[in-house]
Amino acid sequence: MYLIHPRRYFRNFKNKIEVLKLKRQAKKYGVELLLGSNVRIENCSISSNSEHGYPNSKLGIEDNCYLKCAHFGFYGENSNISIGAYTHTNGGEKSKVTFQVGADSTINIGEECLFAGGVVLCTTDFHPVFNEQGERTNPNKDIFINNHVWFARHAYINKGITIGKNSIIGAHSVVSKSFMKENVVIAGNPATIKKENIYWEE
Ligand SMILES: CC(C)(COP(=O)(O)OP(=O)(O)OC[C@H]1O[C@@H](n2cnc3c(N)ncnc32)[C@H](O)[C@@H]1OP(=O)(O)O)[C@@H](O)C(=O)NCCC(=O)NCCS
């Protein structure tokens, strides 16, 4: 009789190695990594466009998340990514789920969210745009996703977006403004509300 099933033992062992890999990358780029309990990591990565990263970068992953093929990019100081409990990223080797944060900005993901492969959320345009007065017209802005939102394949979430809880973002949609309404299907380019009063399950 086994104290722990060999397959489960092997999975736990593999997860420990994946967590170690992520911790090593966090250290390399100076990202403070806060890991909750029972977090499962598979083929995830952290990077930065600066060799040693930026000050005050933080990645928080709450309890019971299952993150497969997620990529976390830090592109400036005071950049934060926070992933709520029970969130699942279901990316693939060639279609990662990408979270990118620029300076002084945050991506805040609620609990029980689901991300399909190829989804991108980005708080920065990377290159500044200026008007005639020399003022920047495209500053970095926070992204705020409420609980239980499902992102279908290859959805793109622009800077400054808030999404209401229990909603679905359609495949290949470009979300360029906020939708506070809850329980809606948001889809298209630019994305608009296509259905109301829906509910989804994983
Ligand atoms: C978002 C989604 C789940 C909605 O499915 P649904 O509730 O059956 O929606 P419907 O097909 O009835 O479409 C409703 C309307 O939205 C439009 N629509 C749906 N998905 C769209 C999309 N991705 N882009 C643009 N328009 C879309 C439809 O054309 C339709 O428009 P109409 O009312 O003008 O006719 C589905 O369209 C989708 O994106 N599926 C992909 C799921 C996925 O990526 N799974 C991977 C595993 S996590």
Provide a short characterization of the protein structure.
By secondary structure, this protein is mostly beta strands.
Write the layout of secondary structure elements.
Blueprint: H1 6-28, E1 31-35, E2 40-42, E3 45-48, E4 57-61, E5 66-68, E6 70-75, E7 79-83, E8 88-90, E9 97-102, E10 105-109, E11 114-116, E12 120-122, E13 143-145, E14 150-151, E15 156-157, E16 162-163, E17 168-169, E18 174-175, E19 185-187, E20 192-195
Parallel strand pairs: 1-4, 2-5, 3-6, 4-7, 5-8, 6-9, 7-10, 8-11, 9-12, 10-13, 11-14, 12-15, 13-16, 14-17, 15-18, 17-19
Antiparallel strand pairs: 19-20
Coenzyme A is lined by residues 90, 116, 152-153, 168, 170-173, 185, 187-188, 194-195.
Explain this structure to me?
- The chain has one domain (6-124, 138-162).
- 11% of the residues lie in helices and 35% in strands.
- It has one helix and 20 strands.
- It has one helix at residues 6-28; strands spanning 31-35, 40-42, 45-48, 57-61, 66-68, 70-75, 79-83, 88-90, 97-102, 105-109, 114-116, 120-122, 143-145, 150-151, 156-157, 162-163, 168-169, 174-175, 185-187, 192-195.
- The strands form three sheets. An eight-stranded mixed sheet has the order 2-5-8-11-14-17-19-20. A six-stranded parallel sheet has the order 1-4-7-10-13-16. It has a six-stranded parallel sheet with strand order 3-6-9-12-15-18.
- The structure holds coenzyme A.
- Coenzyme A is lined by residues 90, 116, 152-153, 168, 170-173, 185, 187-188, 194-195.
